[in-house]
């Protein structure tokens, strides 16, 4: 098992990388979290678009999820109550959107259907306003609503909570989204092999050991490391800031 001192060093490296990445994003005027960044007073319109996008960010590129959200709202004149717009479709017409590439929201019909289900719940229970899900609630309480009431998948729900935490719309604790990049970097560093989808609990435990509280802050640097250096097929270990700590890199030499 990886030593606590290695994990501590890795955490410090990630925290510094997070600061640098946030500075870089700010300087470049880029947003990592669509629609909810750099805004103190989040509008209903933006909040709804953000949650809509989160629902689509599953086994599909994040950019595609964002593009499909933008396309849908544009086709409907960017309504404040996006969920009412979704509910205005009959079930049959909604399903027919999934049959055409130019109107399909997701490559999986089930994910397309899920948007409709969530729209009904938000309309009935949150007055068509996603902000009502999180305003005045802790990260943990928001996560429970996303999981239990909206029946979002665990990683998508975590992602939505992460975005809200990162952009300062809620407070509290959470864990990183254990996506492919996060699992790959963590697994390679601590044991020389990525964590599989079946090993999410192990990835979570590793995060808890590295950072018992506010582990969500490691999401951005782990994701960035995974995208820039720790590539799936050909990791750029010689340029990687974590190479001295990494079990995979040691085993490769
Ligand atoms: S040293 Fe290599 S394997 Fe380890 S985290 Fe960096 S890129 Fe990934």
Q: Which descriptors apply to this entry?
A:
binds iron/sulfur cluster; elongated; Endonuclease Iii, domain 2; 2 domains; mainly alpha; 253 residues; 13 helices
Describe the structure.
The protein has 253 residues and is mostly helical. The chain has 2 domains: 4-29 and 176-252, Endonuclease Iii, domain 2; 44-135, no CATH class. It starts with a helix and ends with a helix. The model has no long low-confidence stretch (mean pLDDT 95). The protein has 13 helices and no strands. The chain has helices at residues 4-27, 44-56, 62-75, 82-87, 91-97, 109-125, 131-134, 139-149, 154-166, 180-191, 200-210, 219-228, 247-252. 38% of the residues are buried. Iron/sulfur cluster (SF4) binds next to helix 10 and helix 13.
């Amino acid at each position: 098992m990886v030593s606590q001192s290695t994990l501590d060093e890795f955490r410090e490296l990630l925290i510094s990388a997070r600061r640098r990445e946030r500075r870089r994003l700010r300087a470049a005027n880029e947003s990592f979290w669509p629609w909810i960044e750099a805004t103190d007073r989040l509008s209903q319109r933006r909040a709804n678009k953000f949650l809509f996008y989160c629902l689509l960010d599953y086994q599909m590129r994040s950019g595609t999820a964002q593009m499909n959200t933008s396309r849908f709202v544009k086709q409907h004149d960017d309504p404040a109550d996006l969920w009412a717009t979704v509910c205005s479709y009959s079930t049959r017409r909604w399903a027919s959107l999934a049959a055409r590439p130019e109107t399909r929201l997701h490559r999986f019909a089930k994910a397309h259907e899920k948007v409709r289900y969530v729209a009904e719940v938000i309309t009935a229970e949150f007055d068509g306003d996603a902000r009502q899900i999180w305003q005045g609630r802790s990260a943990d309480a928001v996560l429970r609503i996303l999981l239990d009431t909206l029946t979002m998948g665990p990683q998508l729900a975590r992602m939505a909570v992460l975005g809200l935490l990162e952009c300062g719309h809620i407070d509290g604790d959470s864990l990183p989204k254990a996506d492919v990049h996060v699992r790959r970097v963590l697994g390679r560093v601590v044991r020389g092999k990525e964590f599989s989808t079946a090993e999410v609990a192990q990835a979570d435990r590793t995060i808890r050991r590295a950072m018992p509280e506010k582990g969500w802050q490691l999401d951005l640097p782990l994701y960035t490391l995974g995208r820039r250096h720790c590539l799936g097929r050909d990791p750029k270990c010689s340029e990687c800031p974590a190479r001295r700590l990494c079990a995979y890199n040691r085993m490769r030499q």
